[in-house]
Amino acid sequence: MDFRAIINKTVKIILPLTLGILLFWYLYREQDFGEMMEVIRLGVRYDILLFSLIFGLGANVVRGLRWGMLIDALGKRVRRRNVVFAVLGNYAVNMVLPRVGEIWRCGVTAKYEKVSFTKLLGTLLVDRVMDTLMVGLLTLCLCVFNIGFFRHFFAENPPTIIATLYLLIRSPWTYVGLAGSVVALWFVFVKMRHLTIVRKVRDMIGNVWEGIRSLWKMEHKTRFIIQTFAIWGGYFLYFYITFFAFDFTRDLGIRIGLIAFAMSSLGVAVPVQGGIGVWHFMVISTLVAFGVGETDAAAFALVVFTIQSIWVVLTGLFGIFALPLANREEKSPETLPE
Fold first, then answer.
1. For 174-221, what is each residue's pLDDT tens digit?
2. CB-based contacts of 306: which residues, under 8 Å, 6+ apart?
3. How far apart are CA 40 and CA 35, in angstroms?
4. Does residue 115 contact residue 109 with C-beta atoms inside 8 Å?
5. H, E, C per residue of the chain
6. Most distant CA pair in the chain, distance
7. C-beta neighbour count of 119 within 10 angstroms
8. Cα–chain-centroid distance for residue 150?
């Protein structure tokens, strides 16, 4: 038994979860739970919340279809149900091990579709870069048209990460370190290229790059772009429709809904299980900034996060168990012609 591996896996699970729970406790430690429970019991339209879940599932299904297009560009036609199930399972795994779900997704797809795992990692990188671009574009647009809110938010909650990056950019040691890294990489991959381990790393990087290039080789680029907007449109409706389940958010409007959605998306990007704590902080801070009472905002975040997390786990478990059942007696798909 490899105790070091067990310890590493345990730390990867416990550390982010602990940080998230501590932030969650900090946010809710002084809340009036009696008043909050009153909101949760009597002030929520749960039928509307359940309706919103359809859009989250739809967005993840479209994400699977879009990923399938990237994989097809590698010359391997994959069955769409397999990549959809893998994407659904991806999010359930992430609820336990942050960011490990992406590796699991590539692993099971490689197993059932007989595609190179490292090439799949390259297509996954494209998938994630598109997410980053969409969140960045949305946040930038909202910053331009709502500069007052963002100035106030960052004044009240100093962005320590941005401040740290600014200090790194100004430090000459940053550039010394970058130059040293470039020289070290050149030495390893040029002067030591005869070593077996270096050759394996070069091959792996080449496969990842091949996966990244799938975006350029893809036949239906317009469909890819449409699906990208459909994914994020679905995610927005998944979040925004929940506003209509509460009296205190029902009339806030789509502009505030977009701002809260952008802030919640930034919270989910933090590698904590489901974004617990961080997601709550971003949503509560945004709602309070627009006049929602702190207790009401805390109740909103608690109810929406809990229901959506349960939904992610349920649909993810469905995907995980459906994969082996759907592939019990089927042959691997044929390779696309060159």
1. 667 777 777 776 766 666 766 777 666 666 666 556 656 666 666 778
2. none
3. 9
4. yes
5. CCHHHHHHHHHHHHHHHHHHHHHHHHHHCCCCHHHHHHHHHHCECHHHHHHHHHHHHHHHHHHHHHHHHHHHCCCECCCHHHHHHHHHHHHHHHCCCCCHHHHHHHHHHHHHHCCCHHHHHHHHHHHHHHHHHHHHHHHHHHHHHCHHHHHHHHHHCCCHHHHHHHHHHHCHHHHHHHHHHHHHHHHHHHHCCCCHHHHHHHHHHHHHHHHHCHHHHCCCHHHHHHHHHHHHHHHHHHHHHHHHHECCCCCCCHHHHHHHHHHHHHHHCCCCHHHCCHHHHHHHHHHHHCCCCHHHHHHHHHHHHHHHHHHHHHHHHHHHHHHHHHCCCCCCCCECCC
6. 70
7. 26
8. 22
CA distances from 270 to 4, 94, 277, 282 (A): 25, 12, 10, 11
CA atoms of 139 and 133, how far apart (whole Å): 10
Contacts of 173 (CB under 8 A, 6+ apart): none
181 contacts: CB under 8 Å, gap ≥ 6? none
The reported pTM is: 0.76
Q: Scanning the structure block, which residue is given the tokens 């470039």?
A: 182
* Cβ within 8 Å of residue 286, ≥6 positions away: 153, 256, 259, 260, 263, 264
Q: Under a CB-based contact definition with an 8 Å cutoff, are residues 272 and 20 in contact?
A: yes
pLDDT of residue 54: 97
**Side chain identity, residue 191:** K
76 — phi, psi (to 5°)? -130, 110
Both tokens of residue 203? 């091959």
CB-based contact 126:66 (threshold 8 Å): no
Place of tokens 């709602």: 287
Question: pLDDT digit string (tens) for 84-108?
Answer: 999 999 999 988 877 788 999 999 9
